[in-house]
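for the recovery benchmark. tokens below, seq after
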């Protein structure tokens, strides 16, 4: 995982998060003693002049029409042959930072590592090179090196820096050490002056990767308290509730996400519709599907139309269910869709349209022809087409499954036709 250039540059030029010192008075005293024992040196005059020249090259001069020349500065500094340990260390860390700013991270690491190992820089500079080494190692995806350098930095400074705990959490996550990821993320959260999203994200990712959805839920709930308007917590929370089969909370979380405009994918709304159906709100399930098919978010294909139709059927909205199945049928040419249209229109007592749908199903080669012919008996009977009803009833006598039903219809049709003086 590459760090942003902005973060990297901030570290390289010396900007750092102010750490919180260990609360222990003894630890603070020991640290103060360590600082006092640290030698304070200055560059030799010869090296200092060359460094000043290099720094001048790093600064653009509009009056002279000169642009900043970091490569020239590096070349000048590389040519210096220092004798003092301090000069060597100072030059190495300076050259290393310039290499890093130029994107040459491996060269930067070699130089700054050399400066750190000499261990003669001032307190702040020594702490700085250890931190830069960790950041550069992270940049180069050398995660164990990053962990080691951050460990040296903490041992040296004894500071609790939440940004460093976050980087450690990231490094451990990349190494798939999820227990350590969570530990470091918790420290980042603990010592942060203001809540930051990254530690929560890393902690959640660690639990997801280990399929520990109960803990992932806790992380999302905690994060939402601090970042209620950030959608990246809401939808995962709803999905984790699904994983844990806590469908009631999944539904309520999806609904809250929808109200805030956080649902943006087709799967979000198809899942929401399924949950409405599961909790006995099929009409809302159907209208949810319908709304987002009409908007174009959910594809208006035969499969999705069929799902919406089924929800309308569950809601006893038979005409709407039939119309939606018919839309699916026109796309799919599936006889089963036409059969369902017929069944629903028959329930809605729209027998003429039901007959048309049934006949289309048979025409398309339905595997349930016998079932459809029995349905056509009823449809034609209530349309007053006693002759056709009788014909389908006679045909149905050939089917063992429907023979008794057909016999019943035959008698009933005869009696009705005779009573109404209709020839069958």
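predicted aa per position
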């Amino acid at each position: 995982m590459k760090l942003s250039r902005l973060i990297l540059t901030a570290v390289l030029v010396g900007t750092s998060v102010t750490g919180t010192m260990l609360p222990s008075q003894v630890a603070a005293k020991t640290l103060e003693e360590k600082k006092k024992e640290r030698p304070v040196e200055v560059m030799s005059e010869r090296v200092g002049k060359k460094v000043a020249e290099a720094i001048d090259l790093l600064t653009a001069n509009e009056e002279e029409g000169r642009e900043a020349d970091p490569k020239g500065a590096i070349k000048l500094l590389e040519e210096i042959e220092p004798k003092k340990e301090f000069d060597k260390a100072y030059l190495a860390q300076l050259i290393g930072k310039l290499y890093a700013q130029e994107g040459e991270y491996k060269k930067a690491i070699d130089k700054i590592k050399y400066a750190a190992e000499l261990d003669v820089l001032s307190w702040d500079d020594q702490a700085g090179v250890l931190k830069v080494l960790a950041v550069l190692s992270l940049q180069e995806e050398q995660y164990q090196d990053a962990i080691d350098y951050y460990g040296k930095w903490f041992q040296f400074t004894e500071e609790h820096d939440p940004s460093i705990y976050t980087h450690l959490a990231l490094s451990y996550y990349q190494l798939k050490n999820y227990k350590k990821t969570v530990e470091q993320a918790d420290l980042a959260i603990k010592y942060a002056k203001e809540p930051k999203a990254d530690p929560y994200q890393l902690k959640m990712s660690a639990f997801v990767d280990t399929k520990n959805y109960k803990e992932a839920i806790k992380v999302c709930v905690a994060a939402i308290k601090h970042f209620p308007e950030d959608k990246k917590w809401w939808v995962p929370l709803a999905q984790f509730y699904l994983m844990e089969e806590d469908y009631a909370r999944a539904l309520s979380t999806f609904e809250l996400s929808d109200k805030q405009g956080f649902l943006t994918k087709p799967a979000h709304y198809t899942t929401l519709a399924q949950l409405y159906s599961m909790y006995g709100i099929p009409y809302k399930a159907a209208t949810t599907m319908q709304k987002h098919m009409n908007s174009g978010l959910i594809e208006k294909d035969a499969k999705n139309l069929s799902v919406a139709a089924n929800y309308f059927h569950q809601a006893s909205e038979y005409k709407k269910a039939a119309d939606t199945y018919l839309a699916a049928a026109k796309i799919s040419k599936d006889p089963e869709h036409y059969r369902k249209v017929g069944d629903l229109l028959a329930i809605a007592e729209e027998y003429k349209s039901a007959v048309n749908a049934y006949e289309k199903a048979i025409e398309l080669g339905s595997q349930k022809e016998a079932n459809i012919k029995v349905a056509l008996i009823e449809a034609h009977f209530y349309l007053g087409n006693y002759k056709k009803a009788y014909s389908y009833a006679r045909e149905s006598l050939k089917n063992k499954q429907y023979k008794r039903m057909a016999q019943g219809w035959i008698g009933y049709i005869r009696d009705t036709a005779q009573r109404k003086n209709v020839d069958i």
